[in-house]
Each structure stands twice: as structure tokens, then as C-alpha cells.
Write a structure and sequence with these properties.
Number of strands of chain B: 10
Distance between the termini of chain A: 36 Å
CATH class of chain B: Alpha Beta
Largest interface: A-B, 31 and 31 residues
Number of helices of chain A: 25
Largest sheet of chain A: 12 strands, mixed
Number of domains of chain B: 1
Number of strands of chain A: 23
Structural class of chain A: alpha+beta
Helix content of chain A: 40-55%
Distance between the termini of chain B: 36 Å
Helix content of chain B: 25-40%
Structural class of chain B: alpha/beta
Shape of chain A: elongated
Largest sheet of chain B: 6 strands, mixed
Radius of gyration of chain A: 33 Å
Number of domains of chain A: 4
Number of helices of chain B: 8
Shape of chain B: globular
Oligomer: heterodimer
């Protein structure tokens, strides 16, 4: 074993360039795998930690104040044998929160209970609201999105009453909303302050909320279903911790998927590099292998020499890449940890073990084929002849192409396996960059025309009648405005699908529903009272098709509906329906309206005039600006685009390593040939041109193979992802300009990789080569 | 004007930090149509001199004038371009390109010199016929004997009709019969006006030249003109004298 290792170490040292390039590539792969896997698990791990820290609730039940008495809720919970702990029913009330910058958000507010043992808010900054003080504790993610800081003053609107509070601190919570972009967010007031804030004739507690912990948390869904069956139909809704867990860290998981894909590609290119380097080493050391065999090395020991070289290299590179990955992950996901006020993200041990195993598997697989050469080698021939010369095919191209180019191409054909592996590396990188370009084009298409992907209704302004605003008056005001061409209304409330316990929150539409037409994938929006349109994801999960019958339960009433269309909706991970407003809300007027304005109307003016007319109780936004809000999908896309571009760049560097390694080996092997050609009159510039033209040919073939595959892969990948997030099939534009620029880019990568060895070849002294013969 | 002139040529190599002087002041003048052999023991600087004369390397000191051009002062690229047309080089180890056919090997310098392909092809046919290997045009070097390979190398060296044909131990790898055939070929080429300079340590080879220069320790020590081409006895006597 000692002899094997000693020989392996000597071999590694004798091929410093190849060793360094393989080392860097494997380390980069390990870094990416570590970071990607860390990211993939980080969201849920951080949530699990938060659950543990806050003694989180496994189920939260919310009973409607006017339908279910708190005692009834408590009795049902206490009767369930799986429940091991529960809070007392606690009053919750929805307010409109006005930030110092005037932005309005709905918030769910509770009194802070200092003795609360389950799902207590986890203080991130500041202090808890003190009794007797007009202080409020705000959700950290809402505060960050709206630019609210500790010490700022915010207003809670309840009917006509304006309550002013100082932000005492911010918190994170393991119950809704545990992730950015989740609305409505939560807020806590000092004990007893809630009753005072909502004090107004006719205003009742909106709901009672109770949080439970279970004996078997993984069975939360089943327990939830049991509990709902024992409570008045339609009077209670809620959610389990497992449902929140599905939502958290979604954007990071999306990044992780891309990173993992690129890590696999990087490892693949690394594998090609190893296979090439090992083949080259075996060729160059043919005589040495013969000699080692002659002095008693077995085939197994010889294979061991080379395998141990690369396994050792893989082990060290993998470990260093992993360490770098740990630091990178902690830095990359600092924002994610801040969401949960958590410690820096560290990869689980399993991730580290998987990373190392992946790197070593790549090394093993890449080494297997070249190592078969050892067994096939004849000892006597190996000692006598040494390296077998490259097989050169008769270069018929000689007469048709300039000589340097013909020579460069002939060199590629002389080592077909090496050329193939290098080309595959370049093709893989072209594919990856094409995917990155397609992602960029898709994100830009979304930014330019979000409605083209059905992200928002085709409306300029969204207005919400908050507390103190009469919806009827608002509707009248909208109808009387000459600059409003049409309007649609929307309401959201919880419903269940018959036979299922999960609450879903459909959009109930009225008015000019054609404003939502751009969201349609198939069929149409509801026009009759018994028609429904389903979001892509929920339809796919239930295998619904247009024309199918579905049954929804609202309160204690069952409605039979006919599915008339499928639409895109990313909300609630696609668990959405569109239902007609009036059958479900009877004579209750809608509070949220989307307005389509006449051309040349400034939506800001319309919004300002309506807000002036109705006061602070009217919340509203210009729809296009909503898209620019920090939580929008566009920003997730832009973040993803940046990540993918960085990864593509890294792969480009790895591909350059591949070309550098491959050309270096060829230059070394072709040393004598170059010497002869120079003796016959080939100039140094022609030698460089010859080698560069070979590399360019590889890049061209790699591009021709990788670019179309990249377009196809991008379409398949993005459409799958879009399906997962509820968008359904989306247009994935081809970035023609980017693809056109990619060709010179890949030529540049190949050229840069080949230039140094080419220059070395050009500078070789003919006399030194001839003297060495 | 002489085809080739060398004045006060010095060449010192550095090998592992140690300076090795191969040439210590060589003067040479070669007239058009001459056939000169440089003789000397291994390591006396023969091949180094040949490389300097062909522009494959540059002297540490001194100058080389080929066809009126100071090749010692030219860039490597300019030397390469000059070499294509002015110099033909025949190596001891043939140095044919194994994956090219005989025809392609011979054509290579012609194509490098950007001569019209048809002209190159015609010249190649003439040369292969002259050298007696016309039937081997489509063979690969590995399918030929040593003598035949060296004939291909000579044809390659002559494809651009060079002013000067340089040969480094051209029969060193050949059996005596093949060697004699190659030397007879050189003699015939010289008879047709080709200027030839070859280096060898073999008196028999040198005896085919019209002028033999003896070299020792990097300098020319004497020269002679063999009375009868192909008879090495006179050269051997001179060599013994020089060596002692």
C-alpha cells in the first residue's frame, strides 16, 4: 500500500497543471453542492428551529366570533385525546395598519399574553409592549417590507377610531405569517389594549383563536380533520404547522434547485476533466506502467495508484469545497436567517456526507473507463514503445483548409475521446448558460408585461374599503367616475372542498371579470352562479378538467359547481379557485375593487382623489407598483437570475479549465510534431492559430449541441417550476441576442483555455525538440 | 555571391544552469552547387551548426547570411518563412508525420509556402518519380522501409526547390544498402545543381561530398576535397590525423 501511495503522490506532483485544475473543479462542485443542499433544507430547518424556540402550535383553530362560542371551542379541543396542550381562546381582530410612509396593510392583532406558552412571538428587536403603554409589537417581515423601525409611530384603524402606537419591537412567529409576503401579518398590543383599540359600538371580536400542541405532530392533518368534524360546520377554520412548513423558504428552495442543477453540471464537467487527465496520464506514462508491472505491480495495484491519486485529490478538494460552501451558505442566506431571527445556516451532517460522497463518486466514475487501459496494456510493448502515438487520420482537409486550421482539426481527430470529453464539457456549459439566458429572458418578459403571465389583473388601481368606509358609497363613487371604464370586485373567504378538511381561500369575483381574463389558461371565468374556475395547481392535483363537477362547502352549506376554466394563480401555492361573488356573499357588498381606467388617466390621481374622498380608511395601490414591492415574484425572479448568472459564469471558468487541461496534454503529446512543422516552416503564429482553431472547433460543436438542448431544457425546467408554483404553462422566450453572443463567448472561453498552451507550443525550441530525440 | 555564409559563429547552451559551448567561432562559405560534408565525432557541434545555418536556432555570436539575408537577425517567424523556400532539411530520424500519406507529407512544405496545390502536386509527382517511390504516394510512413521513408523526407525537403539542402546524419538510421542509395541520390541531385550540406560522423557518407570539413570541439580544424566520390579511405586517413 505504501508503494502504491508513494507512486500516486509522485504522479500527482508530476502533473501540477492537471492536478490543480481538477482540484479547483472538484472543490467548486463540492462548494455548490454544499450550498445548494444547505439552501434546500435551510427553510424548513429554520422553521423547525423556530417551532422549537417558540414552543410552536401544531394546529391553530380560528372560530368565528358570531358562530362559535369560546367555550364550545375549548370543549372540542379538550375532548380530543391527541391534544396535549392548548391555549385559552384568544380574541383576534383585524385592523388596517398605516405605516409612517402611508402604506396600509391589514393586520391581525391580539393582546400579548406574557404567560403564553404556545406559539409565543419571538422578540427580534426592541422590547415587549408594556401594560398601560400605547405600544405595539410588529411582525419583523412586515416591518422590513414597509420600512418600519422600532420607535416609529403607526396607526391602527378600527372603524372611525384611529389608534396611535409606538413600535416597541419586532418579532417572528411560527404561526401565520412565518414568511415574508404572507398577509395579513400579525401584531401584538400590551395586555388589555386590544379591547380599547376596537372599542366601538357594533364591533365584535372578529374571531377566537386557539393554538394546540399534539402528541404526534406529524399527524396534525388528521387531528385537524377530526376536530373540524366535532365543531359547527363553517364556524371554524384553521391550519396546521405542516401547511406553513410547506410554504416557508419557497424562494430559497427554488434557488437551491438551480444551484443543485448547476452543481451536478459542474461535477459532470469535473468528471470529464478527470477522465481526460487520467487518460492523458496513462498515455504519457505507458512506459512507466510497463516498468512498474515488470517489477511486480499487479493490475489492481496499478489501478490503485491512479485511483488513489484522484480519490485523494477528490477528498481534499471535496473537504475544502465543503468548508467554503459552509461559509458561502451562511453569507448567502443571511437574509433568510434574519427572517427567522435564527443563527447562521449550517448544513446538516448528512449534507456534508452527501457532498463528499458525490465528489468521490464522480471521481470513481470518471476514472473507471481510462483505468481499463491498464489491464489491456502489454508489458513488453509498453516498455519498448512507450506512449503509443496519437492515432491520426489522414487529413483530407489539408487541401481544402488553410494548413494551420487543418492541422488543428487533425489534432482533434487524433485523440477522439479527449476531444469528445472536452466538447461535452463545453456543451454542458453552453446548455447551462442557455438556461441562464432563458431565465433572464423569462424574468424580463415578466417584468415588461406581468399580465402576459397572468400575474395581475388588467387593472390600474386596486382599492380596498377599510374600516369606516362604506362599500356601497365607494362603489357609487367608482361608478360615477368618468375616468373608470370598468371595475371588478373581489372578496376572499375560506371554503372547503367537499370531503376535505383543508381550508382554501378562493377569489370571489363580480363586476367586469374580464379584467382577470389574462390569468386564464383554458376555458373562461365564471359567468353563472354555479360556475367555477380552478387554479392550475389545484386542478392538476385533483385531476380536474373543464366541464367537471366540483363541490365546495362554505359555512355549513354545500354548493355544486361546474368547472368552466383553468387559470394561473401563484397565491397559496396554487390552492385557489375563482367563484362568483353573489351566491356566496348574498347582499354583503364587496370591499375590494380593481379599476380599469380610460387611456391617459393617471392612476395616482384617481387613487389620491378616492382617498381624499373616503379618508384613511381607503387603502389602495397602483397595480403596477404592487409588482415592484419587495415580496413580488419579479424580485424572486431577479434574485434567481443573478444566482443563475453567477453559476453560469463559474461553469464557464470550469469549462475553460477543461480546455486548458485538454489542450495542454495535446500540446505535450504533439511536441515532436510541432517541432517538425516548425522546422518545415510553420511560424509561431501559425502554431498558435492551429491550436486555437482546434479549440474553436470544439467550442463550435459544443455550442451547436448545447444551445438547442439548453433551450429545450429551459422550457421543460421553467414550465415544470411554473406548474409547481401555480403559474401553469408559461411562455419561455428564447434570448436570441444572448444566444448569438454566447457563441463568441464560448469561442472566447475555448480560446482563453487554449491560448497559454498554444503560446507554449509556439515558443518551443525546434533544436531542443530535435536534440531530445 | 555565396549561397550561404557564416562568420565567427558561437553557440553556448545553458543546461541546468551550466553553460555548454557547442560552437567556438566557425566560418563557412558555401557556393551554389557545392556538396559539402561536415565530419566530426559526436558532440563536436555538427548538428548545432546545421541548426544555426537552417535558421532553426540563433547563434550566441556571429552571423549567418543565407541568400543575402542575415537570418541570425530575423525574427522566428521571418526565419520560418525563409526556411520554407530557401532550405530543405533532411533529418536522421526522417521525422515524417505518421498520419499523413507520403503524398501529404511531401506536399506539406509546399502548402505551408502557399504554393498553388496543382503546382505542388505536379512537383511532388516529379520528385517521387525521381526518387523511385512514385508507387508509394498513398502509403503511410509506417508502411515503408527506412530507406523509402528517407526518400520521402528528401522529396519533402525538395518540394519548394530550395536553394540549400541540409541533411543531418541522413543515413544514420539506415542499413548500408539503403544508405548507399540515399547517398547516390544526393550525388545525383548535386549533379543537377542542388547545393547540399550534410553533417555526419561516417567517412563513407562524407566521401560522397566534393568538400569535407573536419570539426572538433566546436571549431573547424581542416578540410579536404576527396579525389574519388564514394571512397572513404582518404577521409579516414585525414580523420585519424585530425583526431590525434
Amino acid at each position: 500500500m505504501n508503494a502504491v501511495w508513494r507512486q500516486a503522490r509522485a504522479n500527482l506532483r508530476s502533473r501540477k497543471l492537471q492536478t490543480s485544475l481538477i482540484f479547483l473543479t472538484l472543490a467548486a462542485s463540492a462548494l455548490l453542492i454544499t450550498t445548494a443542499l444547505t439552501a434546500y433544507f435551510a427553510g424548513t430547518r429554520l422553521y423547525d428551529q423556530l417551532m422549537a424556540r417558540t414552543h410552536g402550535a401544531h394546529i391553530v383553530l380560528s372560530a368565528k366570533g358570531d358562530l362559535v362560542a369560546p367555550e364550545e371551542l375549548t370543549a372540542a379541543v379538550q375532548a380530543n385525546p391527541d391534544v396535549v396542550e392548548a391555549t385559552a381562546p384568544r380574541t383576534t381582530f383585524r385592523f388596517t395598519l398605516i405605516a409612517p410612509n402611508g402604506k396600509k396593510d391589514e393586520v391581525i392583532v391580539q393582546d400579548l399574553d406574557p404567560d403564553q406558552k404556545i406559539a409565543s412571538p419571538w422578540l427580534v428587536e426592541g422590547h415587549l409592549p408594556q401594560p398601560g403603554q400605547a405600544e405595539i409589537l410588529l411582525d419583523r417581515n412586515l416591518a422590513a417590507a414597509r420600512g418600519i423601525h422600532v420607535g416609529d409611530e403607526v396607526t391602527l384603524l378600527a372603524g372611525e377610531r384611529r389608534n396611535h402606537f409606538t413600535v416597541a419591537g419586532t418579532f417572528v412567529t411560527s404561526i401565520f405569517c412565518a414568511y415574508p409576503g404572507c398577509r395579513p401579518a400579525r401584531a401584538y398590543l400590551a395586555p388589555g389594549a386590544l379591547a380599547a383599540a376596537m372599542q366601538k359600538e357594533g364591533v365584535k371580536p372578529e374571531s377566537w383563536e386557539i393554538a394546540l400542541r399534539l402528541r404526534h405532530p406529524q399527524q396534525a392533518e388528521a387531528v385537524f380533520r377530526d376536530l373540524l368534524q366535532t365543531l359547527p360546520q363553517g364556524g371554524v377554520e384553521g391550519y396546521t404547522w405542516l401547511k406553513i412548513r410547506r410554504f416557508v423558504g419557497f424562494d430559497v428552495r427554488l434557488q437551491a434547485i438551480f444551484m443543485l442543477a448547476f452543481a451536478v453540471l459542474a461535477a459532470l464537467v469535473g468528471g470529464f476533466l478527470i477522465a481526460n487527465a487520467l487518460s492523458g496520464a496513462l498515455r504519457a506514462q505507458t512506459r512507466q506502467i510497463g516498468l512498474l508491472r515488470a517489477i511486480g505491480f499487479t493490475n489492481g495495484q496499478l489501478a490503485g495508484v491512479y485511483l488513489s491519486e484522484y480519490l485523494a485529490l477528490g477528498l481534499v478538494a471535496g473537504l475544502l469545497g465543503m468548508i467554503a460552501g459552509v461559509f458561502l451558505a451562511a453569507r448567502l442566506f443571511a437574509d433568510l436567517t434574519a427572517r427567522y431571527a435564527a443563527e447562521p445556516v449550517h448544513p446538516p451532517l448528512g449534507v456534508l456526507a452527501a457532498t463528499l460522497a458525490a465528489v468521490l463518486v464522480v471521481v470513481l466514475l470518471a476514472a473507471l473507463l481510462p483505468l481499463r487501459r491498464i489491464a489491456r496494456l502489454d508489458t513488453v510493448t509498453a516498455i519498448r514503445q512507450g506512449m503509443e502515438p496519437p492515432r491520426r487520420h489522414r487529413a483530407r482537409l489539408l487541401r481544402r483548409l488553410p494548413l494551420p486550421v487543418a492541422h488543428g482539426l487533425a489534432s482533434l481527430l487524433a485523440t477522439p475521446t479527449r476531444s469528445l470529453l472536452t466538447t461535452l464539457g463545453l456543451a454542458v456549459v453552453t446548455l447551462a448558460v442557455t438556461v441562464a439566458l432563458s431565465l433572464g429572458a423569462t424574468v424580463r418578459a415578466f417584468a415588461d408585461d406581468p399580465q402576459g403571465m397572468g400575474i395581475v389583473p388588467d387593472a390600474e388601481v386596486e382599492v380596498i374599503a377599510g374600516e369606516g368606509v362604506s362599500p356601497e358609497s365607494l362603489l357609487q363613487a367608482i361608478q360615477s367616475r368618468p375616468d373608470v371604464i370598468s371595475y371588478a370586485c373581489q372578496a376572499v373567504r375560506g371554503v372547503r372542498l367537499a370531503g376535505e378538511s383543508d381550508t382554501i381561500y378562493p377569489r370571489f369575483l363580480c363586476g367586469d371579470v374580464s379584467l382577470f381574463d389574462n390569468m386564464l389558461l383554458e376555458g373562461r371565468l365564471p359567468q353563472a352562479d354555479d360556475e367555477a374556475t380552478a387554479a392550475y395547481t389545484i386542478a392538476r392535483e385533483h385531476n380536474w378538467h373543464v366541464g367537471d363537477a366540483i363541490r365546495v362547502v362554505v359555512d355549513d352549506q354545500t354548493y355544486d359547481m361546474r368547472l368552466v376554466g383553468i387559470y394561473r394563480d401563484m397565491n397559496n401555492v396554487g390552492q385557489m379557485l375563482i367563484l362568483p361573488y353573489h351566491p356566496f356573499f348574498a347582499d354583503k357588498p364587496p370591499r375590494l375593487f380593481y379599476l380599469r381606467l380610460s387611456p391617459d388617466t393617471d392612476p395616482h390621481v384617481v387613487l389620491a382623489e378616492l382617498q381624499q374622498q373616503f379618508g384613511e380608511g381607503l387603502a389602495g395601490e397602483v397595480v403596477a407598483e404592487t409588482l415592484r414591492n419587495a415580496d413580488s415574484g419579479q424580485n424572486v425572479g431577479a434574485m434567481l437570475e443573478r444566482t443563475v448568472q453567477a453559476l453560469a459564469l463559474l461553469l464557464g471558468v470550469i469549462a475553460m479549465f477543461g480546455v486548458l487541461s485538454s489542450v495542454s496534454m495535446s500540446v505535450h503529446e504533439d511536441r515532436r510534431l510541432v517541432g517538425i512543422l516548425k522546422a518545415l516552416g510553420m511560424t509561431p503564429a501559425q502554431v498558435v492559430a492551429s491550436i486555437l482553431s482546434g479549440a474553436a472547433a470544439l467550442a463550435l460543436i459544443g455550442y451547436a449541441a448545447g444551445a438547442p438542448l439548453g433551450v429545450v431544457a429551459a422550457r421543460a425546467l421553467f414550465r415544470t417550476l411554473a406548474g409547481q408554483v401555480g403559474l401553469g404553462p408559461i411562455p419561455v422566450p428564447v434570448d436570441g441576442r444572448g444566444l448569438a453572443l454566447l457563441l463568441p463567448g464560448m469561442l472566447l472561453v475555448a480560446g482563453l483555455g487554449a491560448y497559454l498552451p498554444a503560446r507554449r507550443a509556439a515558443r518551443q525550441s525546434v533544436t531542443a525538440i530535435l536534440r531530445d530525440e | 555571391m555565396p549561397t550561404l555564409q557564416a562568420h565567427n559563429l558561437h553557440k553556448t547552451y545553458r543546461s541546468d544552469g551550466v553553460a555548454v559551448t557547442a560552437l567556438r567561432g566557425v566560418d563557412l562559405s558555401l557556393e551554389r552547387g557545392e556538396f559539402v560534408a561536415i565530419m566530426g565525432p559526436s558532440g563536436c557541434g555538427k548538428s548545432t551548426l546545421l541548426h544555426l545555418l537552417a535558421g532553426l536556432d540563433t547563434p550566441t555570436q556571429g552571423e549567418v547570411i543565407l541568400e543575402g539575408q542575415p537570418i541570425h537577425a530575423l525574427s522566428e517567424s521571418r526565419r520560418a518563412v525563409l526556411r520554407r523556400t530557401a532550405v530543405g532539411f533532411v533529418f536522421q530520424a526522417y521525422n515524417l508525420i505518421p498520419n499523413l500519406t507520403v503524398a501529404d507529407n511531401v506536399d506539406l512544405p509546399g502548402l505551408l509556402a502557399r504554393s498553388p496545390a496543382a503546382e505542388v502536386s505536379q512537383r511532388r509527382q516529379e520528385l517521387l518519380t525521381l526518387l523511385g517511390i512514385a508507387d508509394k504516394a498513398n502509403a503511410f510512413p509506417s508502411q515503408l522501409s527506412g530507406g523509402q521513408q528517407q526518400r520521402v523526407a528528401i522529396a519533402r525537403a525538395l518540394i519548394n526547390t530550395p536553394t540549400l539542402l541540409l541533411a543531418d546524419e541522413p543515413t544514420g538510421n539506415l542499413d548500408s544498402r539503403s544508405g548507399n542509395e540515399v547517398l547516390a541520390l544526393f550525388r545525383d541531385l548535386n549533379a543537377q545543381g542542388q547545393t547540399i550540406l550534410l553533417v555526419t560522423h561516417d567517412p563513407k557518407v562524407a566521401s560522397f561530398a566534393r568538400r569535407v570539413i573536419f570539426m572538433r570541439d566546436g571549431v573547424f580544424v581542416s578540410q579536404m576535397q576527396p579525389r574519388q566520390q564514394g571512397d572513404p579511405s582518404q577521409i579516414i586517413s585525414q580523420l585519424v590525423e585530425v583526431t590525434l
